[in-house]
Design a protein that fits this description.
The chain is of the alpha/beta class. It contains 12 helices and 5 strands. The longest helix has 14 residues. About 35% of the residues are buried. Keywords: Hydrolase. This is Hydrolase of the HAD superfamily.
Length: about 210
């Protein structure tokens, strides 16, 4: 079995509501306000941010577009865009899970919607080559989940039949897209729950 990890919210911390509240405390005072701001800012990873994720526009252009669309100052938007790498810290429980899965003999890959500047940061900063056999970043492939093409690219890159891939992602639409291609998949909520699911599938010992 080849096991495929999403990154944001699965391997690396990504909680947009608290992130925006921390980065722009003068504008966002509560998590509720943070959630509303995140929906506006990131547009559920469609719109401007989706184009940035997909590598079709760069950081300067996404800042310009979000500032124009939201009315936030360019400086505020730049602050958010610059702060994302510091938000993407490894989730300790997932790192342990990765190590345990590798020790159990599984081959691990990643499939991440990630703008290219952040992909470069993660590749430089963390031992991705130690954790994963290979992987795809949307910003480098110019394709994005939940589109079918990035899953097809992953099958080719990972040299696997769909039914031999198990995908962990924290967005239901991406899980559904994987299942539609006959991958195995489940929704990631936290490392402990994922471990229980993997044990139930007999991929890890209890």
């Amino acid at each position: 079995m080849k096991i495929v990890f999403d990154f944001g919210g699965v391997v690396f911390r990504w909680h947009p509501a608290s992130f925006l509240a921390r980065v722009l405390p003068h504008r966002i005072e509560t998590l509720e306000q943070g959630a509303q701001a995140a929906a506006m800012f990131f547009q559920q990873y469609g719109g401007d941010w989706g184009l940035f994720d997909q590598g079709l526009i760069g950081a300067n252009e996404v800042v310009r577009r979000i500032s124009a669309r939201t009315g936030w100052s360019r400086g505020e938007v730049e602050t958010v865009v610059r702060a994302v790498p510091d938000e993407l810290m490894p989730i300790p429980g997932t790192v342990v899970l990765i190590r345990d899965l590798k020790a159990a003999g599984h081959t691990l890959h990643f499939l991440s919607n990630m703008p290219e500047p952040y992909a470069d940061h993660l590749s430089r900063t963390y031992p991705l080559e130690e954790w994963f056999e290979s992987g795809l970043f949307s910003g480098r492939t110019k394709q994005i989940k939940p589109g079918a093409e990035i899953f097809a690219m992953a099958e080719r890159r990972f040299e696997a039949q769909p039914q031999d891939l198990l995908f962990l992602d924290d967005h239901p639409a991406n899980v559904d897209a994987a299942l539609a291609r006959d991958w195995q998949a489940f929704l990631f909520t936290d490392a402990a729950s994922a471990r229980r699911e993997l044990v139930s599938r007999r991929l890890l010992n209890a």
